[in-house]
Specification:
Keywords: Amino-acid biosynthesis, Decarboxylase, Lyase, Lysine biosynthesis, Pyridoxal phosphate. This protein is an alpha/beta fold. Helix content is 29%, strand content 26%. The protein has eleven helices and 21 strands. The longest helix is centred in the middle third of the chain and has 19 residues, at 208-226. The structure holds ligand LLP. The site of ligand LLP has 20 residues, from helix 10 and helix 11.
C-alpha cells in the first residue's frame, strides 16, 4: 500500500495535493512519500521479527540524501556499490557499521575508502578481487570483513537485464569455486570471513528462486563448517518484486516467513538488501502534457518528461501505470505518452486509455526506484527536481538542475 490516493477526485501524496506541488516546483518532478518509505521499511523489519538481522536498503534504487536519511533514522543499514554511494550514506547520517559493499568492480581506492569508514562487510565477487582487497587492507594494516557472493545458478524468472544469478551472468562466484575461495580467504592475513551472500535478480515475483538459492548456500555453509570456516551472516540480497501492473509478488511477510523456516536452528544473522520493494511505490514521476498530436492511427500525448528522466520503459520495456492528477470526465482514447527526446524509444507508456488535454498533469506510478538514479542529461536536459511529502508538508529534496550546471566542469581549448 502507498500514500498516493485520490481524495475528492484529485490525486494526493499523503495530505498534499499533487497539482499544488507541481505548481510550486514545476514539472517534471519526482515526488516521494515519507510515510510510504517508512511503511515499506518497517514491513521488512517486522517480518523478520526477533531473528538477528539487518535491513540494508539498496542505495542504487534511490540515493537522494533525504531518502537515505529517512531510512537511516529508522536504523536502516545500506547496500552500496560504489564509493559515491558510500559517501552519500555517510552524508545522510547512515551508520557505516551497517553498510555492505556489493559490486564486481570495486577499485582499490573504493576499498580503502570503505575500510577507513569501517563498513560491516565487503561482498566479494571474484578471486582477483579477494587478493586485491587483502593487499589494500594490508597496506592500511587492517583486516577486511568479507563475504563471498555466490552465484547459485538459479533462474529468477525475471527480465534478462536484471537477472543476476545464472552461470552466464557476470555476478558472483560459481558454486564449484566457492569452497576453495572461502578456504583461501580464511588463510589470507588481512581478510576476516564473516558471511556468504547472493543476489539472484530483481523484480522477482515468486518465492521459489529465493528458496532454492538459500538451500544451495546453506549446503555450502555446512561444508565450510566441516573445514573450520565459520559463517556468521547470510545475506540473501534484494530482488523482491513490486506491483507495477497485475503482478502479485509475495508480501515481505510471506517472503520473510518462507525464508526464516530455512534458517531455524542456525545461529546466523540475516541481511536483506531490498531496494525496489522499499522505494518503487513510494515515488511518482509527475509530468505535464505539452501537446496532443494525432497521426493516421495514433494519438500522442507529448509530455515534458522523457526517457532521460525515467528510462525504465525505454530500457526494459517496463510498464508503469500512468494516471491523471485531475481526472476529466468523459470518453478516453488510447494515447502513447512520449517525451521531447529525439529517439523513437522515448516513451513513458504506450496505448494508455486516457482523457487528457494539453496542460494536464500525469503521474507515472512506481517511479521511486530506479527512476531518478538512472536519469541522465541526454539532449542537454537538466535533471528534474525531487520533492518529498511528509503528511501535509512538502520539501524540495533536490533542486532542478540549472542550465549552467549542464556544462559545469567542461573546458574550452585555449
Ligand atoms: N543487492 C544487489 C547486489 C543488487 O545488485 C541489487 C540490484 C539489489 C540488492 C537491489 O535489488 P532490488 O531489491 O531493488 O530488486 N535498474 C533495474 C534494476 C537493477 C537492479 C540491480 N541490482 C530496474 O529498473 O528494474
Amino acid at each position: 500500500m502507498d500514500h498516493f490516493l485520490y481524495k475528492d477526485d484529485v490525486l494526493c501524496a499523503e495530505d498534499c495535493q499533487i497539482a499544488d506541488i507541481a505548481a510550486q516546483y514545476g514539472t517534471p518532478l519526482y515526488l516521494y512519500s515519507r510515510a510510504t518509505l517508512e511503511r515499506h521499511w518497517h514491513a521488512f523489519d517486522k517480518a523478520v521479527g526477533s531473528v538477528p538481522h539487518m535491513i540494508c536498503y539498496a542505495v542504487k534504487a534511490n540515493s537522494n540524501l533525504a531518502v537515505l536519511n529517512v531510512l537511516a533514522r529508522l536504523g536502516s543499514g545500506f547496500d552500496i556499490v560504489s564509493g559515491g554511494e558510500l559517501a552519500r550514506v555517510l552524508e545522510a547520517g547512515g551508520d557505516p557499521a551497517k553498510v555492505v559493499f556489493s559490486g564486481v568492480g570495486k577499485t582499490r581506492d573504493e576499498m580503502a575508502q570503505a575500510l577507513r569508514a569501517g563498513i560491516h562487510c565487503f561482498n566479494v565477487e571474484s578471486a582477483a578481487e579477494l587478493e586485491t582487497l587483502n593487499e589494500v587492507a594490508g597496506e592500511l594494516d587492517m583486516q577486511a570483513p568479507i563475504s563471498l557472493r555466490i552465484n547459485p545458478d538459479v533462474d529468477a524468472g525475471t527480465h534478462p537485464y536484471i537477472s543476476t544469478g545464472l552461470k552466464e551472468n557476470k555476478f558472483g562466484i560459481a558454486m564449484e569455486e566457492a569452497e576453495g575461495l572461502f578456504l583461501r580467504a580464511h588463510a589470507l592475513p588481512h581478510l576476516k570471513v564473516k558471511g556468504v551472500d547472493c543476489h539472484i535478480g530483481s523484480q522477482l515475483t515468486e518465492l521459489n528462486p529465493f528458496l532454492d538459492a538459500v538451500d544451495r548456500l546453506l549446503a555450502l555453509i555446512d561444508t565450510l563448517a566441516e573445514q573450520g570456516v565459520v559463517i556468521e551472516h547470510f545475506d540473501v540480497g534484494g530482488g523482491l518484486g513490486v506491483t507495477y501492473d497485475e503482478e502479485t509478488p509475495p508480501h515481505p511477510d510471506d517472503y520473510a516467513k518462507a525464508l526464516l523456516t530455512k534458517f531455524e536452528g542456525r545461529q546466523l544473522t540475516l541481511i536483506f538488501e531490498p531496494g525496489r520493494a522499499i522505494a518503487a511505490n513510494a515515488g511518482l514521476f509527475v509530468t505535464q502534457v505539452l501537446y496532443l498530436k494525432e497521426n493516421s492511427d495514433k494519438n500522442f500525448a507529448i509530455v515534458d518528461g522523457a526517457m532521460n528522466d525515467l528510462i525504465r520503459p525505454s530500457l526494459y520495456s517496463a510498464w508503469q501505470k500512468i494516471i491523471p492528477v485531475s481526472p476529466r470526465a468523459g470518453e478516453t482514447r488510447a494515447f502513447d505518452i512520449v517525451g521531447p527526446v529525439c529517439e523513437t524509444g522515448d516513451f513513458l507508456g504506450k496505448n494508455r486509455q486516457l482523457n487528457v488535454q494539453a496542460g494536464d498533469l500525469l503521474a507515472v506510478r512506481s517511479a521511486g526506484a530506479y527512476g531518478f538514479t538512472m536519469a541522465s542529461n541526454y539532449n542537454s536536459r537538466p535533471r528534474v527536481a525531487e520533492v518529498m511529502v511528509d503528511g501535509d508538508k512538502h520539501y524540495l529534496v533536490r533542486e532542478r538542475e540549472k542550465l549552467v550546471q549542464l556544462w559545469q566542469g567542461e573546458h574550452l581549448l585555449p
